[in-house]
Every structure is written in C-alpha cells, then in structure tokens.
Amino acid sequence: MPKVQYAGPVGSAIVHLIQTSLFGNARMAAFEFDTLNEDDSFLTDLGGGIWLMDDHRWALKVWETEKRGDHYSLVHADYHWDGCYDFHDQPGEEERLLRATSAQLSQLVAEGELIRYDSFIAPAVKRGLFHTVHFYCLQDNSGDDGLDDGFLRSCGARQVIHKSTQELVKADIVWPLMFDLCLDLFNRSDMWAEGDLWSDAEIIAFLKEVGPLLTAAELVTVSLSFNYSGTPNDTRHLAKLVIPRLLALRR
C-alpha cells in the first residue's frame, strides 16, 4: 500500500482510492473522490511514482526527496506558468536555499513563504535539479511566459515553450524526466473558484496524447489546486477523471 504523507480525512480517502483503482470498485471510488477538499498540507504518494497534492508548492519537496539523481528535464503542464522566483534580492535566503538538504528544503516548502504555489519551479532550477523546463501552459501573460531569461542564464538552464500538445510530445527531451501536472490546466476560467472545464473527452484525449511522457517519467506530480481548478465539485470531478487514468498508465 502506498504511504500517505498527510494522514487525515483526505489522506484516508486517497488510500481507498488506490484500492478502488486497482480492484475496480467504481462506486467506492466515486464516493471517496467526493470527500476531497481544499487542504494546504495535503500531500500523498499514490504509488507508481505519482504524487498528489493540493497546493502546488509541495511538488518541489517531492522532486528533491524522491529523485534518484540530478539534472532532469521537467514537463510543466498547467494553466499557469508558475515561473516566479521569490529569492531575488535576498542573498541570505538564497544561500539557505542552495545549501539546504532535502529535509531542510522540505521545511522551506512547508513554511510557504519564499516557495509558494507559483514559485516552486525556479528554486529547483536554481539548485541544478532541472537543466531544461518544457512548458505547456495556456495563461496569456503578454510576454511574461515561463522563467525569466536572465535567471535561466544565471543557472545555465533553458526552457522550451510549447504551443500545442503535438509540439510537446514531439519535443527532443533529454532524459530522465519528471512530469508536473496541475488540474487547473483543464479549467478555461481564470476567475477564483469558477469553472469552465474542458469536456471529459478533451481531457481524456490530452492524457492519451501525452501518455508516453507520463509513462516514461521518473516521477509524476499532480496538484488539485482547489479554487484555481474551478468550483470544489469541479476539482473533485477532474480528480475522479484524471487520477485513475494516470494510475492505469503507470501500473
């Protein structure tokens, strides 16, 4: 049975979810998904290299504690770019970031001050974990896409911005790979706690198209992102649709 990092009502629900995903009890799976709620501390290991969280910043903890090596490529599939770097102009805190052990970095993530839901990728790049970030994001930032060019130069890293899933799956990706997915990718609305979801067929087609990357990745991190991914029921619906399919891909 996969280990649960946060044991509470939601964590228990996910344990039952794994059982139902493996043994096919759709009724129980639907019931347990319906217990999911916004929870800043929620992080759980679903097995098969898949980790589920609510706040996206926990992905950095997973990458650092579960990695088998260094110098990965990252695919970031999300409505938002999440390209902020909150350690700018704070040399003392940046030194703390660069020197941190995985346990110390986990504490920085837990504090949620300089590593937040939109600033968790750049610290991993700064620490040398990712040499290349492949972005597939739908947010229009009028040129502020991805990570800052000067920041990338300072890290000796690069980014590739993909305008379509076809571009992404055909990309020349240097392995090993981690795949990061936010469920708000599937919500067209940019309003707080409002949903304009892709159709189920569109979401399933996306997962099928990027399936080879999801299967080959060493780790897959998934954020529920309550309020960004629609209404609470929208988020539960997305989780119910996406998570079992990810588990099946990596079974």
Structure description:
The chain has a 7-stranded mixed β-sheet with strand order 1-2-7-6-3-4-5, with helices on both faces. The chain contains 11 helices and 7 strands. It is α/β, with parallel strands linked by helices and 251 residues long.
Tally of separate helices? 11
- Strand order, largest beta sheet: 1-2-7-6-3-4-5
The largest β sheet comes out as:
7 strands, mixed
Class inferred from helices and paired strands:
alpha/beta
Succession of helices and strands: HHEEHEHHHEHEHEHHEH
> Helix share of residues?
40-55%
Rg over C-alpha atoms, rounded to the nearest angstrom: 17 Å
Poorly predicted spans: 6-13, 15-31
| Secondary structure tally: strands | 7
Query: Beta fraction of the residues?
Result: 15-25%
Question: How far apart, in Å, are the first and last alpha carbons?
Answer: 13 Å
Q: Short summary of the structure?
A:
The chain is of the alpha/beta class. It contains eleven helices and seven strands.
Present the secondary structure layout.
Blueprint lengths: L8 H15 L2 H8 L9 E5 L2 E4 L4 H9 L5 E7 L12 H9 L2 H10 L9 H6 L3 E8 L11 H7 L2 E4 L3 H5 L7 E6 L17 H10 L1 H6 L2 E5 L8 H18 L2
